[in-house]
Design a protein that fits this description.
Blueprint: E1 6-16, H1 19-29, E2 33-37, E3 41-45, E4 55-59, E5 64-72, H2 75-87, E6 97-98, E7 106-111, E8 117-122, E9 141-149, H3 152-163, E10 166-173, E11 177-184, E12 192-196, E13 208-210, E14 215-217, E15 231-236, E16 264-267
Parallel strand pairs: 1-4, 5-8, 9-12
Antiparallel strand pairs: 1-5, 2-3, 3-4, 6-7, 7-8, 9-15, 10-11, 10-16, 11-12, 13-14
């Protein structure tokens, strides 16, 4: 795909059995603000971000990634993307039309190669937000999402081919090979990371990693056994907010204790390999609320 029709990450929708505990984490430890709640569903905003919400929590029987939502600049871009996906054999869940979530808009949903539900929308009403002061230790915006895959090269190729993502660089280990691809759709280094997982399983921890201009965070205790549809959102924090830990091992697999110095990051200059045909999704669309 030559034209990049996606503009940014809107929100991530999660289903969790320990709903009250996770809500306390996101609104307390993580610093998001709950703006609405109804029958086991909560919408949480980042105070410095104009999106209607950045995380939607739903009480469910197991931990699942319900949805990853991206923005597009115009309704015409939404239509163009839907046409391209259909032509490329991608299964659509809904046709382009009115989005029935806070802020409305025009969009549609489809399955990615790993069975995750993805949404793309435009004309979503912006929320009134405020400037986050430098010393406020709360997220400014939703920065990127990490998606686990047991074949990171296949997943990377699919996102390059169908959604216009490009490889920024790759995290590698001399013992494990390539373990994470950092993918971009703009001049931001990455909007998505694809992490290698030995099984279709997602486990993240409440770690922080210090960066030159921001601090990023991953949610706590989100384990998704037997499901490839998993991911961890990350937030951009105020530039001068100190890191809450000095650890830079956020991208290190949980079962290894090798130091960060053993890992290398390679700029994205390699040619993509051919992706096999997408397999059938293993579940239907998430709740529309």
């Amino acid at each position: 795909m030559s034209a990049r029709l996606l503009t940014h990450l809107r929100h991530v929708d999660l289903a969790v059995p320990d709903y009250d505990k996770q809500l306390d984490f996101y609104s307390g430890v993580w610093g998001l603000t709950k703006v609405a709640e109804d029958s086991g569903i909560s919408f949480l905003v980042a105070e410095g971000f104009p999106e209607q919400y950045v995380v939607r929590l739903r009480k469910g029987d197991e931990n699942l990634l319900d949805l990853v939502s991206y923005g597009a600049a115009h309704p015409a871009d939404v239509d163009t993307l839907a046409e391209r996906l259909l032509a490329g054999g991608v299964q659509l869940i809904t046709q382009p039309g009115t989005v029935d979530t806070p802020g409305g808009g025009y969009g549609f949903r489809f399955f990615d190669i790993d069975g995750r539900t993805i949404e793309v929308s435009a004309d979503v009403q912006a929320r009134r937000h405020r400037k986050i002061e430098e010393r406020e230790s709360i997220p400014v915006k939703l920065s990127h999402v990490v998606l686990n895959s047991n074949d990171i090269h296949r997943t990377r190729t699919w996102y390059e081919k169908h959604l216009g993502f490009r490889l920024s660089d790759t995290l590698s280990s001399p013992h494990m090979g390539e373990v994470m691809h950092f993918m971009r759709i703009s001049n931001q280094h990455h909007l998505m990371a694809i992490a290698r997982a030995p099984t279709p399983h997602c486990t993240t921890s409440p770690s922080r990693c210090a960066a030159s201009t921001s601090t990023c965070a991953a949610p706590a205790g989100h384990s998704v056994p037997d499901s490839p549809r998993c991911g961890a959102p990350a937030a951009t924090w105020p530039a001068t907010t100190p890191s809450r830990t000095s650890s830079t091992r956020m991208a290190t697999p949980s079962n290894t204790r090798r130091s960060w110095s053993a890992w290398t990051r390679t700029p994205g200059t390699r040619t993509s390999t051919t992706s096999p045909s997408p397999r059938s999704p293993t579940s239907g669309a998430p709740p529309t609320r």
